[in-house]
Specification:
This protein is α/β, with parallel strands linked by helices and 582 residues long. It has 19 helices and 10 strands. The two termini are 70 Å apart. The chain binds adenosine-5'-triphosphate and magnesium ion.
């Protein structure tokens, strides 16, 4: 039963892969025709050998001088069709991979945030690079081998039967032994290669974490620990690889020996029957040649099974991603000038259904153009709350209205165009400062606008000290810049986007006074005239806010102005005296 469902699954993957191949049927057909000629050329070689021996045996001088030319021609056909079939199928394989890769990359940019919470970056990367490669291999190599080598085997066996049905049946007796050896070999091969793949995955993980956490490794003397962890995996991997090589080469040697047994039997019978003239020497040579030529395609067909299985498994994992639902986007409001009024009506939210609520029955209203500060302890749900506005996640209960309309009614792109976000952990792309400011939808804006945004966010203050100014590279994830500089670039992005709603998730880390004052001034200008939600850690921001929301364990416990909340003398005052009393 289980086997059946597995077969069915494999079939499904096959069919779906085939769908990507069928548009290229012309190339496929051309390659198949080339394969036919290739097999025919192969089948002709034993006959050439026979003719050579016939002439050697009882030839007259000068006879058979055409044979070298026949050989050249046969091998020219063989070489050309070899090239055409391999190139043609590789072309199809690479094409399919190109298509699958773009499809999956596009999917990665469209998947909901929830999907990324439950998957590792390493896995997503390896699917796009490694798994697709295995599918390509299965498509091109497996097709070449399966079609071409099967054809070749058929015609060669045909030639053997033509030369001597008796000897052919004799060789056939050794087939079960070879088949048994081969199946034992492939089982071991599969076992070892799976283990190798797993150990490679483990190795990648250890390398990744040791390299990216190199500072932690240094300061906590983690070198020995990491080295030990890696060497254990490295050693296991080395052992498995040696076992794999041993299995394959031993299996090969045994197979060859079994075939030698067949050949010896053939020669024995041929010689003992020589008197009865079953077979002349020339036909015997033809027979042996055909038999010898059978070995290579047979071996390939056996081994391709493994590549096929790996390819199918890889294909399955790719289709899983392709079938994954993208972000819900069925709103119809595509272009609407938004004033920026926000109503939050008894919303609840949880990341994980099994765990408790992260936000619990929260309601509040924000008038257009005003500033709301959200305060609360670490983990109280502040970042989660503001992340619901651009619909990184959808609420479980309740509703969020923007200008009186439910968020779901807006087209996702349109909705996100209304919101600028300066988040807690700033992500920069490995590009120049300028290109980081005019990222994505902003890239078509004129250079003056970028410079102006950079000016307003005090990015120019440090750009002027860099050799290439605003066109300096920021490095991987902005590693070449300081925390405060990265923040200012993020603020410049928001200036350039110029959207009616602004979300500021202030970084908790303290900055030096100069940076702090730059950022403070930049944010104040930026907030002007926009509906702003600011997760505030700075006293000045909090005091100036029109409304302060106090979150505690996912619930809204107090709201009001700074003075009102101080007067109540509740959670806010506690927070205030802890956080802001320096
Ligand atoms: N992607 C996620 N998946 C699952 N749980 C999450 C996720 N992000 C946050 N949480 C959990 O939700 C809760 C609220 O987190 P949130 O980031 O909103 O807190 P916060 O108030 O912004 O804290 P901080 O002041 O430290 O930034 C925390 O308990 C956190 O563990
Ligand atoms: Mg946060």
């Amino acid at each position: 039963m289980k086997r059946f469902s597995l077969d069915k699954r494999v079939n499904l993957v096959y069919q779906r892969l085939l769908k990507y191949v069928t548009p290229h049927w012309r190339v496929l057909l051309f390659s198949f025709i080339a394969m036919l000629f290739y097999s025919a050329a192969n089948a002709y070689v034993p006959f050439i050998m026979r003719d050579v021996f016939e002439i050697l045996e009882n030839g007259i001088k000068g006879q058979g001088l055409y044979l070298p030319f026949v050989i050249l021609l046969t091998f020219a056909v063989r070489g050309l069709t070899d090239f055409i079939s391999i190139y043609g199928l590789a072309w199809i394989g690479r094409r399919v991979i190109r298509d699958l890769r773009s499809l999956i990359f596009m999917k990665y940019t469209d998947l909901p945030s929830r999907y990324f919470d439950s998957s590792s970056v390493g896995m997503l990367v390896s699917k796009l690079t490694y798994n697709t490669e295995q599918v390509a291999e299965a498509i091109s190599n497996a097709l070449v081998v399966l079609v071409r080598d099967t054809l070749t085997i058929i015609v060669l066996v045909g030639a053997m039967v033509y030369f001597s049905p008796l000897l052919t049946s004799l060789v056939a007796i050794t087939t079960p032994i070879v088949a048994l050896l081969v199946s034992m070999m492939s089982k071991a091969f599969r076992r070892y290669s799976t283990k190798i793949q797993t150990s490679m995955g483990d190795a990648t993980r250890v390398i990744e974490s040791a390299v990216s956490a190199h500072k932690v490794v240094k300061i906590f003397e983690g070198q020995d620990y990491e080295n030990k962890k890696f060497n254990k995996i490295n050693k296991a991997n080395y052992k498995m690889n040696l076992k794999l090589v041993a299995t394959v080469s031993l299996g090969d040697a045994l197979t060859q020996y079994t075939v030698a047994l067949g050949v010896s039997a053939v020669i024995y019978v041929a010689f003992s029957n020589a008197a009865s003239n079953i077979l002349n020497a020339a036909s015997f040579m033809g027979f042996l040649t055909a038999m010898g030529m059978l070995l290579a395609p047979l071996k390939r067909i056996v081994n391709i099974n493994l590549a096929l299985q790996r390819g199918i498994a890889a294909g399955e994992s790719l289709f899983e991603i392709i079938d994954e639902p993208t972000e819900r986007d069925d709103g119809h409001i595509e272009s609407k000038k938004i004033s920026g009024e926000i109503n939050i009506n008894s919303i609840s939210f949880t990341y994980d259904k099994d765990k408790g609520k992260v936000l619990n029955n929260i309601s509040f209203n924000i008038r257009a153009g005003t500033t709301v500060a959200i305060v609360g302890r670490s983990g109280s749900g502040k970042s989660t709350l503001v992340g619901l506005l651009p619909r990184f996640y959808d609420v479980d209960k309740g509703e969020i209205l923007l200008d009186g309309v439910n968020l779901n009614q807006y087209g996702l792109k349109n909705l996100r165009r209304q919101i600028s976000l300066v988040s807690q952990d700033i992500m920069l792309f490995n590009d120049t400062i300028a290109n980081n400011i005019c990222y994505g939808g902003l890239s078509s804006l004129p250079r003056e606008d970028i410079l102006k945004a950079a000016e307003s966010a005090y990015v120019m203050e440090f750009c002027d000290l860099l050799p290439n100014g605003i066109d300096s590279e920021v490095g991987e994830k902005g590693i070449l810049l300081s925390g405060g500089q990265k923040q200012r670039i993020a603020i410049a992005r928001a200036f350039l986007k110029n959207s009616p709603i602004l979300i500021l998730d202030e970084a908790t880390s303290a900055l030096d006074n100069e940076s702090e004052s730059y950022i403070q001034r930049a944010m104040t200008t930026l907030m002007d005239g926009r509906t702003t939600l600011v997760i505030a850690h700075r006293l000045s921001t909090v005091e100036k806010a029109d409304l302060i929301l106090v979150l505690k364990d996912g619930s809204l416990v107090e709201s009001g102005t700074h003075q009102e909340l101080l007067d109540i003398g509740g959670h806010y005052r506690d927070l205030h005296s802890m956080q802001f009393s320096v």
